[in-house]
């Protein structure tokens, strides 16, 4: 395949070396003459293990060259990768000027091309950037997306120091595009990479890199705060975190990584408070750990705001134990939502088969009578009664019975789903998901 790579910085030069290593014909493009000359002389523009050797081989084989002439690069290739910088502006916002600048250059050339051209954004960009690029190309070139050209979001996952290895061994390959032609081209391009390919919406692809990097930053910060607390208690933080990381059922797994409602129950809120209090007693600052309950409370507020926005007063709750399969109401965030709405004069009905059964057997009766007797009075035995008497239905936990009945709820009733009982549903018409 004939490929042009715009930007010969870190991501761009590694992409040039690796694509040409796979026997593709690659043209690197950069405004800096020095970088172009380095590549053409078989040299790397950055220090990276194994990079310069591959560049030298590819240049010698005639598979790689560099130029400042963007017109030549686009005319002689079928796919253009944009790997230019997206630095921060003074206010922290992302600067897309270099991205749009390159897109405009490519669009001017596409205007005079008779063959299909795919434009791939490899740089880290905000949601909506690919759509903006598509519009720029259509406006300047007069060509039509998916007919004359296609745009793709293809974020990279390269670590400095092991980028050459990471390119060939990624966790996955992300292809975000609305162009079927470009989708097939990208599929062919990455067929030699032994990693799953996920074809998703461009906007989802654009969020992946930011999400990954912020997750990594969070993990580093978390480990550091735990390490600081361990140190002051005479504990080896590495031993603690090494054991934590060995739990692949919960700690290093997808289990707690599903967007949804606030956490609750007898353990998490109590233990977050307990650890942050330990840190305070040691005069340690733990900004990340100390933010957990604040962020959790915001999710409760967000759920309430979705209810307020309906401007309807008859609200039914399907499930109010903090998770399905339990009758535990301790620090249930749904209880907090219900109590707030009671205080605001809402007409409420509540259904939870586990809580109802528990109250009859006396297992949770003492807690109900002493802590939430006002909510217990709202508890109904029949889920259909709650549905019939409510204008808004809030799904509070993912009990299987709710996934079975959600599609039977009349369309004139608003559904607010806090847990995503059906993975196929996204916010549309009378259905509102808190994070989807």
Work out the number of β strands. 13
> What's the oligomerization state?
single chain
Helix segment tally: 18
Detail the poorly predicted runs: none
Strand order of the largest sheet: 3-2-1-4-5-6
Structural class: alpha/beta
Radius of gyration: 27 Å
Kindly state the percentage of residues in helix.
40-55%
Give the integer mean of the pLDDT values: 95
Beta-strand percent range: 5-15%
Comma- or semicolon-separated keywords:
single chain, 436 residues, alpha/beta, 6-stranded parallel β-sheet, 5-stranded parallel β-sheet, 18 helices, 13 strands, 46% helix, elongated, 6-PGluconate_DH-like_C_sf, oxidoreductase, UDP-Glc/GDP-Man_DH_N
Task: Report on the architecture of this protein.
The protein is of the alpha/beta class and 436 residues long. Helix content is 46%, strand content 13%. A six-stranded parallel sheet has the order 3-2-1-4-5-6, with helices on both faces. A five-stranded parallel sheet has the order 10-9-11-12-13. Strand 5, helix 6 and strand 6 form a beta-alpha-beta unit. The longest helix has 31 residues. The protein is elongated and about 80 Å long. It starts with a strand and ends with a strand.
Brief summary:
With about 425 residues, this protein is an alpha/beta fold.
Write the layout of secondary structure elements.
Blueprint: E1 2-6, H1 10-21, E2 25-29, H2 33-40, H3 51-61, E3 64-67, H4 70-75, E4 79-82, H5 97-110, E5 117-121, H6 129-141, E6 149-153, H7 163-168, E7 173-176, H8 180-189, E8 197-200, H9 202-232, H10 237-245, H11 268-281, H12 287-310, E9 314-318, H13 333-343, E10 347-351, H14 353-361, H15 365-371, H16 373-376, H17 383-388, E11 392-395, H18 400-405, E12 414-417, E13 431-433
Parallel strand pairs: 1-2, 1-4, 2-3, 4-5, 5-6, 7-8, 9-10, 9-11, 11-12, 12-13
